[in-house]
Amino acid sequence: xxxxxxLACTLLAAGCKGRAQQAPQQEGVPVTVAQVxxxxxxxxxxxxxxxxxMQTVQVRTQISGTLTGVHFREGQEVKRDDLLFTIDPRPYQxxxxxxxxxxxxDRAKLTDAESNALTLTELAKKEYVAERQAESARAxxxxxxxxxxxxxxxxxxxxxxxxxxxxxxxxxxxxxxxxVHAGNVVKANDVPLVVIDQVQPIYxxxxxxxxxxxxxxxRAGEQLAVTARLSDQRPGEVPEAxxxxxxxxxxxxxxxxxAVNSTTGTIMLKAxxxxxxxxxxxxxxxxxxxxxxxxxxxxxAPSQAVQRGQQGQYVFVVKQDxxxxxxxxxxxxxxxxxxxxxKGLAPGEIVVTDGQLRLAPGSRVQVKGAAAGSGS
Length: 376
What we know:
Layout: H1 2-22, E1 29-35, E2 37-53, E3 56-59, E4 65-70, E5 77-78, E6 83-87, H2 90-125, H3 131-163, E7 166-168, E8 173-175, E9 185-186, E10 194-197, E11 202-209, H4 213-218, E12 225-230, E13 249-256, E14 266-273, E15 285-302, E16 307-309, E17 312-318, E18 324-328, E19 330-334, E20 338-343, E21 350-354, E22 365-370
Parallel strand pairs: 1-22
Antiparallel strand pairs: 1-21, 2-11, 2-15, 3-10, 4-6, 4-9, 5-8, 6-7, 8-10, 11-14, 12-13, 12-15, 13-14, 15-20, 16-17, 17-18, 17-21, 19-20
């Protein structure tokens, strides 16, 4: 009997010890939380855009000849009227000299013809010669006067052709590859010699849904702010050595297309940026954010708290007893940092921002670190 009682006590003690060891397993799921806030947030639209030069100029020659000089480096920044190319001027210098000699010759002939016409006109009045002879002399003088005018025009054309032997930059911008090198014979209006892109200022073109067009048009007289961030940047990103990639360029909306794209349901916009540091480069992709206004007293939660399920968007709300409930929400505006909650949450409530995969309605949670808020 004593052995049976001792065995029973041993088993009871072992059972109590086992339950004691299982007790820590009842701890909550570790999660990160944040408090829902009420604040004023900007009403913004974000879209992927493309950086475009303000102007793109294909530099071509307007005369034919031998290219004798290239006066810039590929990729160099040039200013308006900087010398780019020279073409052998000797044929055009000779043509100018020939045209000038033709002017001098025909002016001398004109002087003689005018004098002869004047003399014959006076003699015709005295009936010493026939009137027909005087008229012919006057016609010859008028013809030579027109010839001199044509010669003078030829001189101007020769001067212009000679000026075309030096090709200067029509805009301030950055050059691309040299497409025709010194020593080649070029033809008028043939292939481009170089392409120049104006990068200061510069455009970012992006498309937004047509539903925001009325808001844009309502503020047509204002300069709507636009920020642009290269597509591989993220807010708060630590810049690389020698780089300032974490900052966004700031510009203004300067162009709204005159028609909505019926295929995509979007409208094309362009914003202008000073681009003093040339961080926006033609052809690169950028995240453009257009600010349309402000939403006052908005209910705001971190974007990480909003989940998407079969029934729509929802969040896990931490209750006072340490458990969570799944609550459907309606999001009116969202970016990568915060979401404006139109329905489903109230300021001051606590929502889960990390660890949702291990949660179910009624799960107990253990807060491992509270977020500072929904971010600014």
